[in-house]
Amino acid sequence: MQTTQPLNDNNLNLLRILYIVKACFNFLGMFFFIGYAFMGTFFKAMVNTFPNPAQNEAHFPEAMQWIFVIVGTIGAVVLLTFGILTLIAASKINSRKGYNFIFVVGILNCFTGMLGIALGVFTIIELSKPQVKALFQPQPKTPIGF
After folding, report:
1. Distance in angstroms (rounded) separating the CA atoms of residues 128 and 114
2. Are 19 and 90 in contact (CB under 8 A)?
3. Tens of pLDDT along 51-70?
4. Distance CA 113, CA 98 (A)
5. For the whole model, what pTM was predicted?
6. Four-residue CA torsion sign, 46, 49, 50, 54
7. How far apart are CA 107 and CA 102, in angstroms?
8. Could you tell me the end-to-end alpha-carbon distance of the chain, in angstroms, rounded to an integer?
9. Where are the transmembrane segments (predicted)?
10. Cβ–Cβ contacts within 10 Å for residue 33, how many?
C-alpha cells in the first residue's frame, strides 16, 4: 500500500521551484521598469543637447520626464515587492510553515500575469487538500529518553 505523503511532498517541491522561477521573472521585469525610469531622463538630455534649429529653443517637457520616472519607480518597487514575497513563500513552502502567508501570496500572484495566475490557482488547489494542511500543522515534540 502506497501512502500519499511522497506525492504531496513532490507537489510542494514543484510548487516551491515554480515560486523561485516566478520570483526570478519578477526581478527581471523590475529591470524593465528601471530602464523605463532612466528613459525619461535620457530623452530630456537628448532633446536639450540637440535643440531644434527651426525654433529658438526646444526643451523636453519637465512633466513628461517625471511621468517616466514615477511610473518606472512605482513599477520597479511593485515587482521587487512581489519578487521578495514570492521568494519568502518559496522558503516557507520548503520549511512547511506559514500556511496562511503562502495562501495569501498565491492569491496575490493571480494578479501578476499568466504565470502568476497558473501559480496562484495551483497554490490554492494544492493548499486546500487536507493532506497538505496536515503537513503545515505543528508537530508535537516527543521527549527523547525517559
Report:
1. 21
2. yes
3. 666 666 666 677 888 898 99
4. 24
5. 0.80
6. positive
7. 9
8. 34
9. 20-43, 63-89, 101-125
10. 19
